[in-house]
Amino acid sequence: MSTTLDPTSIDTAAPASTTGLRWPDLPAAQQPTWPQDGSLERVRETLAGLPPLVFAGECDVLRDRLSDAAQGKAFLLQGGDCAEMFESATADNIRDRIKTLLQMAAVLTYGASTPVIKLGRIAGQYAKPRSKDTETRGDVTLPAYRGDMVNDFAFSPEARRPDPDRLVRAYHTSAATLNLVRAFTTGGFADLRHVHEWNRGFIANAAYARYESMARDIDRAMKFMVACGVDFESTPLSAVELFSSHEALLLDYERPLTRIDSRTGNPYAVSGHFVWVGERTRQLDGAHLDFVSRIHNPVGVKLGPTVDPDEVLRIIDKVDPERQPGRLTFITRMGAGTIRDALPRLVEKVTASGAQVVWVCDPMHGNTFESASGYKTREFDDVVDEVRGFFEVHQALGTVPGGIHVELTGNDVTECLGGSEKILDGDLEKRYETACDPRLNHQQSLELAFLTAEMLTARSS
Ligand SMILES: O=C[C@H](O)[C@H](O)COP(=O)(O)O
Ligand SMILES: C=C(OP(=O)(O)O)C(=O)O
Ligand SMILES: [Mn+2]
């Protein structure tokens, strides 16, 4: 479907930035210090010769789905690891993450009474921006871990040395992951009847009894569908769409994996269906925003509590000048204590400008703190409260809450505090397995889905 990118074409596909420079020459924040031995250039050439991981047509389908989310006709569930790791790309881990997303999506579909768009932070989420360039343990200071695409999590000088060959390994691990995602989502595993049975298993635990009535309502709806003769073997009840996404952080990975779509002649990132620019790299005259402004995928931009509303308008002008519905998603990550104050002025200004973006709530990144025992963690109640604040703000303004963006795993980890399982600080050491930020475990993820579904139901009734 696509040809390898002529490196000059993407540079001319959109106007130069306000500085007059084009993205290869613009400053790019949060890039690793790669070795200066020619290995990076060799790796970029290798990547440029590899097949696309996703197809432009699939990205267009996702953009259409997101256009529905912008108008309240669909709801986005975006979720997965903070940092995927090569060694965690096992069949069991991938299956359990997909299972968690499918279970959440079933509950949210019921709550929203609209389709739920399933978008994994998966098959490419291998690079991390960091607050500090180094990490110190005792009297040893080493380069920070920047994701498996850059260096290794182990705390030794060899492990932490950036290695360009990891970019190629990230590509192949993403390919293997996507292959399994496609099999799991189309091969019968995603049948709504299984998903509903899994959710019944979750509710069977007394800790989650408060969600029983919603599960019973879903049960009745399923029986009604059977009585009406609905064929569960047919799509979309047995095969689902699950799209991939990651932060477009490492331009040495993204640039060689940008290709010209043979149908339209437009450039697309073929490393994932949706890519986003993070809070630390969204400088208006930086390389990241310039890069996403030139590709035709649906793209996201994270917005933290300090963002200036006028800056947000300039981001729209740069990334979505044609105001194409579904093209631009703003993923706000304000913090539970801040969202009710900080979000309204952004939404008001953007709405007044006539832009139609998808507003998505990331209730994770504004709620991170260090626990007394020294773990980077988040309180489940803060996560829920930020989602609640997000719904309140949109309700008050008459605008559309388009979705949620969550760091989660299908595994039974102990990384975030609270939830009905009541994970305490003393429990964190038991199964703290994340390579970067704390994720909701399987149970906490489902609980968040039920609570969000209640908010969605309250809104639509
Ligand atoms: O998701 C990622 C983190 O929020 C980001 O990498 C910063 O983490 P740090 O403060 O531990 O570096
Ligand atoms: C780094 C992340 O988020 P943010 O850019 O919002 O801090 C992330 O999504 O893991
Ligand atoms: Mn994170």
From TrEMBL:
Superkingdom assignment: Bacteria
Co-factor note (free text): Binds 1 divalent cation per subunit. The enzyme is active with manganese, cobalt or cadmium ions.
GO molecular function: 3-deoxy-7-phosphoheptulonate synthase activity
Residues given in the record as Mn(2+) binding sites: C82, H365, E407, D437
EC number: 2.5.1.54
Polar residues composition bias: residue spans: 1-20
Enzyme class (EC, first level): transferase
Binding site for phosphoenolpyruvate: R121, E279, R280, K302, R333
Annotated metabolic or biological route of this protein: Metabolic intermediate biosynthesis; chorismate biosynthesis; chorismate from D-erythrose 4-phosphate and phosphoenolpyruvate: step 1/7
Region feature Disordered, mapped onto this chain: 1-36
Residues that span the membrane, as ranges: none
Family affiliation: Belongs to the class-II DAHP synthase family.
Name of protein: Phospho-2-dehydro-3-deoxyheptonate aldolase
Organism: Barrientosiimonas humi
Species lineage: Bacteria, Bacillati, Actinomycetota, Actinomycetes, Micrococcales
